[in-house]
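Morning, I've got a small favour to ask if you have a moment. It would help a lot if you went through both lines with me. I owe you a coffee for this, so here goes:
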Amino acid sequence: MTSTDENRKEIVDTLDGLIEILEDGKLGYTNAAEHVENTDMKHNFIQYARERALYIVELQDEINRLGKSTDTSGGGVLGSLHRAWIDIKSTFTSGDTEAIVNACITGEEAAIEKYELALKKEEIQPTQSALISKQLNGIKAVLMRLKANS
């Protein structure tokens, strides 16, 4: 494997990892929207889930640009939720708005950690770094809104 192939694989693996946490967040926000009573919060959670879906498409487009198909990307990813979102379903079924928001905060903090690690990878190219940074800023903004509501 050439250095370029190795770099490409490392980049794709990094982007796939971000897709995994975004899939978890999308599912988490969808579940939150189903279980929260407050109409404004329900709308916000739906919006956050849509935002995560958009981020996933942006990262998949980047993976495709690198020459790797994303048709199979996410197959195993969807089956294994990130540890930060694992217990969210049981939290949500209680209908406790504060618990739901706190679970979302925990998930977003985990996402931010994963994004910050991705930005430290040497293989990441400037265009990818810009995309990751843009998404990271969006996630941080959501986290600030969640914390303001908790």
Notes: The first helix runs from residue 3 to 35.
